[in-house]
Amino acid sequence: MPEAPDLFVIRNYLEPKLIGRKVTAVDERKPLVLRNMTGEKFSDDLPGRTFTGIGRKGKLLLLELGEERRLVISPMLTGGLRYGSPDDRMEASAILVFDLDDGHQLRYFDQKRMGQVYYLHPDQLGEIVRLENQGPDVLDEPMKLEEFRAALKPFRGEIKGILTRGQAVSGIGNAYADEILWGAQLFPFRKKSKLSPEEFERLHEAVYSVPKGAVTVLEKRVGDSIHKKVRDFLSVHGKGGKACPRCGSRISAIKANRRETNFCRKCQPGTMFD
Questions:
Q1: Which CATH architecture best describes the domain 145-264?
Q2: For 4-132, CATH number?
Q3: How many C-beta atoms lie closer than 10 Å to residue 65's C-beta?
Q4: Most buried among 31, 45, 103, 157, by the most CB within 10 A?
Q5: What is the pLDDT of residues 165-182, one digit of tens each?
């Protein structure tokens, strides 16, 4: 799943390439992912419109097409974007293909078709629950500790689930939740109500420092390959069975709540019943 650091870099890469470019044609290869809310036929209504802005909120990209239309892309687990030449090999998972007036293409692909692409009027943005039901972005100016504590107060349960929900702080998914909790030395399944003041401070620091540090790495590593997820530099996520960079113990991998959680049992002690 592209998360805030990934989409931050993707957005910055695409902005100078898309702004001012006109869409000349669009190919709906697998239209079930598209949520067309305009009442007009997508393949007829979009061509001729020009990209005038590109933004990001949490784990969504917002593309402006003049004053009348918006594209909101929610990649979810397996979605992504590719920018390049029409001669590049077409992915079997390509969902939507946008031809641009400078001869380039922008493609949205999604292996499991779990994401959504919304085509709508600007005044319909409030109807997208994933867009509206989000907290402050994790890459924005950090909340003060007490503000952070207050933002998490309404939520109960395991701390990882609260982070990935996005209502307290947006933009954190499965991968960076693992990284944040490793950085804070917190057991991923620890109940939020059990966190000590010191643990809350460590969590607050890691929530902002880990994604920010990832952006620095991604800006150097991603380049033109915005369609690839660069995750090999992460400390624990996806590293089950390997050595913990901090203590050398073996990194654990637990599948729960339909996702894999990676953590170090020595650096992040705890039990499922804590």
A1: Orthogonal Bundle (1.10)
A2: 3.20.190.10
A3: 20
A4: 45
A5: 999 999 999 999 999 999
